[in-house]
Amino acid sequence: MRKAIAAFTAISAFLAASSVLASAEDRSSLITTTISPTFTVTIPLSVKVPFNSTVTDFGSVVLDTARLESDKCVVVTLESDNTLDNTSDASKTIPYGIHDKKDDSVFTSAKYLSEGDKTDLTINISQDDWNQAAAGEYEDTMIFHIQYADK
Q1: Phi, psi (deg, nearest 5) at residue 101
Q2: What are the angstrom distances between the C-alpha of 131 and each of 15, 72, 92, 119, 135?
Q3: Phi and psi for 130 in degrees, rounded to 5?
Q4: CB-based contact 112:63 (threshold 8 Å)
């Protein structure tokens, strides 16, 4: 009888352990992190345009560093009236254009997607505009707007 009780006890213990295993639930853990987008853009600095120079290197707009979301980009837009103004007589001006050096198109804005993307720029003044310009000092200020935007 003792053997039967011991066998019954062993079988009962086995069945109890099996039922615990059968009722076990899967559990999961979620690990998350957030990385904020960051970027650094370099824009051209001030430049002195030599008299009678029809094309002058202006520097580059460069996306120096970038950690962007996959559906985003950096947009750089140039705001300018494209006119050099005589500092002592505002009625005297010299028109100019900012161009993409690669294809000589007028630069107004560009999208940058990856670190190292850049646009080399030139300042273009026609020889006719130089010929018509009055003597004096000329200047203009332009603004580069930099935005984190959808592609």
Answers
A1: -60, -30
A2: 103, 45, 13, 30, 11
A3: -65, -45
A4: yes
Contact yes or no for 69/43 (Cβ under 8 A): no
Indicate the pTM of the whole model: 0.78
In whole angstroms, give the CA distance from residue 73 to residue 66.
Answer: 9
Write out pLDDT tens, residues 83-116. 999 999 999 999 999 999 999 999 999 999 999 9
CA 81 from chain centre, in angstroms, equals 25
> 33-82 pLDDT, tens per residue?
999 999 999 999 999 999 999 999 999 999 999 999 999 999 999 999 99
Q: How far is CA 71 from the centre of its chain?
A: 11
Measured in residues, the chain has a length of: 151
Q: Which residues pair with 121 in a beta bridge?
A: 59, 100
Tokens of 148: 């984190």
Which of 82, 120, 89, 126 lies closest to 104 in space, CA to CA?
Answer: 120
Beta-ladder partners of 59: 121
Cα maximum dimension of the chain: 124
> What phi and psi, each to the nearest 5 degrees, are found at residue 5?
-65, -40
